[in-house]
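pipeline: protein-struct stage 2 | run 1193 | Matrin-type domain-containing protein
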Amino acid sequence: MDYQNRAGSKKGGGGVAGFSETNADRRERLRKLALETIDLEKDPYFFKNHLGSFECKLCLTVHVNDGSYLAHTQGRKHQTNLARRAARDQREGRTDPITGLPITGATGALGVSAIQVRKNLMKIGRPGYRITKIRDPISRQEGLRFQLQYPEIGTEIVPRHRFMSAFEQRIENAMENKQFQYLLVAAEPYEAVAFKIPSKEIDRRPAKFWTHYDKDTNEYFLQLLFKADKDDRCKYLECFSKDYY
């Protein structure tokens, strides 16, 4: 550090460093020492944004340089959040089979990290599908039966489905299409497909709603029945009573 040209000292002589200069020199020495032993590229919580600043994705803090981030990782806030994450993973039963330690995304700048990387598979298009309108012969409930073909699906992949309301999707105006809901079916490496169905309550009983995946033909079946309205039930009971008596 250059101690010359300070107040109260002659040119070429060493002056007394102030608190800010000493603190800056200490931080620089600690940064160089930490960079020799710590690889920030292996820290999953270390992120450099488009502004050139450094962020901690665990604590949601922003730092002007890597030295500030390293000092943050040794602080109480970061260590507390790491302990909370480790306790949560241990409570959920997620541990490393080799070390026996809980899997936490990162155990600190000097610890062992375990990161789950999402596979980026190239989509190969939409699956073939067939939709059939059905009606229960006893309860007179209306419904739909979906049949989707996945000839190139992986051996360990099973198609999944979920229902999405009109207010969750971002493709159409939710207020204009609130009388509809969406059935989504996804299976890699195919694109996820969505079917627009009436926004009626679905009968979730096993005999009314079921799914089946045939691994031999790679076909996925889904059947759903909507709950009958009160007027429809009354009409059906009235017709049944007339036929019976």
